[in-house]
C-alpha cells in the first residue's frame, strides 16, 4: 500500500479521519485529530443526535467520498427523502447512511459525527449493550461433530481442531494470510487489518474451507476453494469486513455456517469459548501451524479487562482471559472466530484482531464484539 513506508498518519480503511498504530502497548490505534479536514459539503458543526434517525442535514457523501443516491421516498415517507441526502430511515445504530452511486458499494455510512462524540478507531465512545440473555434459539447454524477434546493450550501451540465455519483466506499465490468465519453460504466475516484498504482488487483472492490443513494436498476430498468477489468494510470503529463469495459454499459435515448472536448481546463472564486458526506457532510447547489449531479460553468481563488495559477497551470489544504461558492468537489467525457454545449451537461472539504482543503471558485477548454489528451484517447480506 503506497504511502505506508513510514510511521505517518494514514487512512487505508476509510475511517472518518487518518489514524496510526501507536507506540503505547495499551493503545493499539489512535485518530490523528490534529489534521484539519479540507472544506467540502460537510458543515463543520453538522452532527446527528442518538442514532441519527431524525437527522435532516444536507450531507450527501459517504465516509469514502462517494456521492449518495436517493433513498426511495415511497418506502420511507417519514424520512424527508426529497434529495440524495444521508439519512437513517431504518434506525441503524451506526448512524446516517445512503445508497451510493458506486456499483460496487450498495450502501455506506456517511462522514457525519455524532453530536458530542468523536468517531474513529479509538474514539472511546460508550454504546449501551444488553445484559446476558438467558435463552437464545438457533436453527440450523453452528452445528458440528466434535472429534477432539477441549484443551487449554493456545493457537500458538494449539492442537488440531474441528471448526467447520473457519475459513482460510488466500492471496493471489494461493497462500494463507488470514482467517474468517462463514456466516452464510456466500458470506465470510473477517477483519480490516487483513487487507490494505476497502478497495482491494479481489481477482485472485479466494476462501478455502473444508480442510484441517493449511496447505491441503491437491485433490483432497471435501476441500472447497471459492473466489472472493466483493469486500464490504464495516462501520469505522468495527474493524470488520464482509467478503462475498462468487458462488455459495456447499454445506456438509466439513463446511457449515456459524450462528450470529442476538443484537448487542454480552457473553457471560467465565463462559468458555474457542478460537481457531492456522497462525503462527511458537513457544514452550510447539504446535503445528500446518493444521487448524484450536484453544479454549474463558471470557473476561470488560471491567476486569480494562484494569489491565487502563480503560482502553471499548464496549464494541470483548476480552478473554489468559493463562500462565499465554493463550492467544497470532499473525494469520486474524479475522478468525471466537466461537462460544449456546446449548448445542456455536455462536460467533468475537473476531480475532491484531494485538501488539500475541499470546503474551498474563495478557488478556481482545476481540471485536460481533453482537454490536449484527444489524450491519444482516443489512449487507440483505442488500447484496
UniProtKB/TrEMBL annotation:
<dbReference type="Pfam" id="PF00089">
    <property type="entry name" value="Trypsin"/>
</dbReference>
<keyword id="KW-0677">Repeat</keyword>
<feature type="domain" description="Kringle">
    <location>
        <begin position="1"/>
        <end position="38"/>
    </location>
</feature>
<protein>
    <submittedName>
        <fullName>(spotted green pufferfish) hypothetical protein</fullName>
    </submittedName>
</protein>
<dbReference type="InterPro" id="IPR013806">
    <property type="entry name" value="Kringle-like"/>
</dbReference>
<dbReference type="GO" id="GO:0005615">
    <property type="term" value="C:extracellular space"/>
</dbReference>
<dbReference type="GO" id="GO:0006508">
    <property type="term" value="P:proteolysis"/>
</dbReference>
<dbReference type="GO" id="GO:0030971">
    <property type="term" value="F:receptor tyrosine kinase binding"/>
</dbReference>
<dbReference type="InterPro" id="IPR018056">
    <property type="entry name" value="Kringle_CS"/>
</dbReference>
<feature type="domain" description="Peptidase S1">
    <location>
        <begin position="155"/>
        <end position="382"/>
    </location>
</feature>
<dbReference type="InterPro" id="IPR043504">
    <property type="entry name" value="Peptidase_S1_PA_chymotrypsin"/>
</dbReference>
<keyword id="KW-1015">Disulfide bond</keyword>
<dbReference type="GO" id="GO:0004252">
    <property type="term" value="F:serine-type endopeptidase activity"/>
</dbReference>
<dbReference type="InterPro" id="IPR009003">
    <property type="entry name" value="Peptidase_S1_PA"/>
</dbReference>
<keyword id="KW-0420">Kringle</keyword>
<dbReference type="Pfam" id="PF00051">
    <property type="entry name" value="Kringle"/>
</dbReference>
<feature type="disulfide bond">
    <location>
        <begin position="9"/>
        <end position="32"/>
    </location>
</feature>
<dbReference type="InterPro" id="IPR050759">
    <property type="entry name" value="Serine_protease_kringle"/>
</dbReference>
<dbReference type="InterPro" id="IPR001254">
    <property type="entry name" value="Trypsin_dom"/>
</dbReference>
<dbReference type="GO" id="GO:0046425">
    <property type="term" value="P:regulation of receptor signaling pathway via JAK-STAT"/>
</dbReference>
<feature type="domain" description="Kringle">
    <location>
        <begin position="46"/>
        <end position="115"/>
    </location>
</feature>
<dbReference type="InterPro" id="IPR038178">
    <property type="entry name" value="Kringle_sf"/>
</dbReference>
<dbReference type="InterPro" id="IPR000001">
    <property type="entry name" value="Kringle"/>
</dbReference>
<dbReference type="InterPro" id="IPR001314">
    <property type="entry name" value="Peptidase_S1A"/>
</dbReference>
